[in-house]
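quick q for whoever's on today - can somebody do inverse folding on this one?? i tried earlier but teh output was garbage lol. tokens:
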């Protein structure tokens, strides 16, 4: 799961997908990163932590890191929160195989609509909750695909 800072959207997506795969005993490795390095080593934004806690997904143990080209070797799919994140991830792709791994998360919900998970950083608590709701729906689609062996 990739966003800009790895302190709001992607840690919430990461923690929520981790929780669901654990609850369902699915064998899937989940992680997140930011395309920027501003917040490397930091815990998620307090507003995202409290939103996660409110809805039952603790994310306070996650720490921000920056996306790097070798992540293409470690992951089958790289979900990006918006088209800018996707562009920055794709700029690090070394070959066609890398390129095919990166996609927009919300295309799981609405294929080819190319919608963004809105950046809540300068927003209100309602914006953080809206991010949670969107991520929850998109992650349910991913879980169904994993169960059906259709994640690629
Ligand atoms: P995120 O949100 O990409 O969802 O983690 C942001 C976090 C920090 C900044 C922007 C977006 N920032 O400009 O520092």
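ok took a stab at it. sequence:
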């Amino acid at each position: 799961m990739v966003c800009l800072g790895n302190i709001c959207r992607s840690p919430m997506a990461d923690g929520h997908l981790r929780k669901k795969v654990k609850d369902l005993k699915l064998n899937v490795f989940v992680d997140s990163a930011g395309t920027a390095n501003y917040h490397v080593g930091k815990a998620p934004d307090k507003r995202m932590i409290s939103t996660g806690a409110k809805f039952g997904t603790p994310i306070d143990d996650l720490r921000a890191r920056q996306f790097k080209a070798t992540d293409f070797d470690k992951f089958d799919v790289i979900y990006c929160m918006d088209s800018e994140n996707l562009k920055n991830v794709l700029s690090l792709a070394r070959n066609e195989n890398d390129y095919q791994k990166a996609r927009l998360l919300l295309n799981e919900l609405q294929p080819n609509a190319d919608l963004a998970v809105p950046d809540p950083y300068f927003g209100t608590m309602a914006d953080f909750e809206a991010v949670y709701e969107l991520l929850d729906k998109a992650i349910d689609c991913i879980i169904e695909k994993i169960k059906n062996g259709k994640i690629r």
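fwiw Residues 3-9, 34, 38, 119, 121 surround 4-nitrophenyl phosphate (CB under 6 Å). also The mean pLDDT is 97. so keep that in mind when u check it
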